[in-house]
What does this fold into?
Amino acid sequence: MTKIMTDTWAKPIFDENGMTQWFWRVTHRENFSLGNHVEIGSFTIIDAMNSVNIEDNVKIGWNCTIMSNSTIDGKKGKIILKEGCSIGANSVIFPNVTVGENAIIGANSLVNCNIPKNEVWVGTPAKKIR
It folds into this structure.
C-alpha cells in the first residue's frame, strides 16, 4: 500500500527554461509526465528527451540527475519511476531504466539497470542489498 505524502501537494509551475519554483528543472518537457503527490528535491535535473514518466507518490532527493539521453556514450531510452519509489539525494538514473513500485535507491547511487519493485539498491553502480 502506498501512502500519500501530503494533502497540500501542488503541481509545479515551470518557467520558460523548465525550472520550477522549487529549483528543479526539466528539459524537453513535452516528453515529461508527472504523477500526483511527487516530491522532487532542489537542484535535480531531468532530461526527458526520450521520455521520463514519474508516477504518483514518488520521492526524489536533492541534486539528482535523471537522464533519458546520454551524449557521452550514446545511450538513450525512456525512464519510468513507478509509484511509491524513492531515489536518494545525489543519485543518477541512466537512460532506459525502470525503477519498480516502492523500490528504494540509496543516496549517491548510479542506476544503470532496471530495479524490481520493493527492493533496495545502493552504490555506484547500484547493487541490490535487500
Q: What stands out?
A: The radius of gyration is 13 Å. The chain is about 0% helix and 30% strand. Residues 25-128 form a domain with the UDP N-Acetylglucosamine Acyltransferase; domain 1 fold (CATH 2.160.10.10). The chain has one domain: 25-128.
